[in-house]
Specification:
It is a single chain. By secondary structure, the chain is of the alpha+beta class. The protein has three domains: 4-103, Rossmann fold (3-Layer(aba) Sandwich), CATH 3.40.50; 132-201, ATP-grasp fold, A domain (Dna Ligase, domain 1, 2-Layer Sandwich); 207-444, ATP-grasp fold, B domain (D-amino Acid Aminotransferase, Chain A, domain 1, 2-Layer Sandwich), CATH 3.30.470.20. It has 15 helices and 20 strands. An eight-stranded antiparallel sheet has the order 13-12-9-10-11-14-19-17, with helices on both faces. Helix 4 (89-97) packs antiparallel against helix 5 and helix 12 packs antiparallel against helix 13. The radius of gyration is 21 Å and the shape is globular. The protein starts with a strand and ends with a helix.
Amino acid sequence: MLASVLVANRGEIALRVIRTARRMGIRTIAVYSEADAELPFVRAADDSVLLGPAAPARSYLDVAAVLAAARQTGARAIHPGYGFLAENAAFAASVLQAGLTWVGPPPSAIEQMGDKINARNLVERVDVPISVGSRRAVPDVTAALVEAERIGYPVMIKAAAGGGGIGMSAAADPEQLSAGFATARSRAERFFGSPAILLEHFLAAARHVEVQILGLASGSVVTLGERDCSVQRRHQKVAEETPSPGVGPELRSRMLAAAIRTGEAVGYRGVGTVEFLVDERAQQFVFLEMNTRLQVEHPITELVTGIDLVEQQFRIADGDRASFDPATAVSRGHALELRVYAEDPRRFLPSPGTIGDWTEPAGPGVRVDAGYAAGNTVTPFYDPLLAKLCVHGADRAQALERARAAVAAFRITGLKTNLPFHAELLASSEFISGAYDTSIVDRLRVP
């Protein structure tokens, strides 16, 4: 097994990776910015290296600094977590060129799936359904207007190289398209270094469902069920559950098979997800994108399967077999994840500040993956995710009941959090019914 790993990330995901690595006997190295020096993940590691100032470009995104930290500490592997450099094919290649083990998929897979247009074209060739949309980058507004007429309104405007909902908006007519295209292009250039834009037909009342895949060291690709990620604000996920209450057995079977074909098409190795938009009424789906990394919401798959996905990442990267038999792996019960952010619970705007009290809920089926503790300061430099509150129950009803109790018991003072939103969501008749879609948050926020 790998002797040591540098975790090229911060916050809750860095701490979560460190915990599994230490359980496996792997020495851990944290890297951190000046703003994060007092956070729990730094203290949890066996060794730590200061990368630089708070700005991500001068710390967590500084490839040279990360590789220098690996050399300095004798790290034999690098785990990127999610975000930052996790889906940077050039960084993955640099890690391998430095003679280190990359705890992630092959750089070629990252590159092929990193461009949404290329990804759409690729999966269509292996019979994965796609929505009507662009087959090449849309160069300007004039071309976008022509393309939208071909596709049919409403359309979704997307950054071809992007993710996380950044540079994404829907347009119902030419006027909205013209305004949205300029904004999306600007944000795509700013956040992803590429102005490339694609258009897709916008599927109203859709569910956002992703399939967890593992590309094993043997070369085969397996799945571990699906997660429903339809609770979103600004096209960004805020709550997830597994299994999806909107996916029946026949649709699930087809989606899992499509996800396997997608992984096989790029020679995938490691943990990843294939995301789909689902028309619940028609029980049909179309490909959305592939995330070539560990997902934020991976804990709920771990809760229903009992499988540590980070452990599988380490094993696959080291050329070892999975710790479980894919032929007999089963899911039991139901799980939900609620992302706890330092943000205003109505407008969802970041709310940095210093944490006063921090009291986590506990009890049967409750898991908290946190990145902060009492006395820590949440700065404006990074995503304001504080923790992931996850619950597991024998069925969805029990999971909902446990989630309500856990939200009520989670106490964080000193700054605003979205815990009141989660209480509202869990009390919503629409969410309780399971018959919701990606517009549920908008409906909850109607005065």
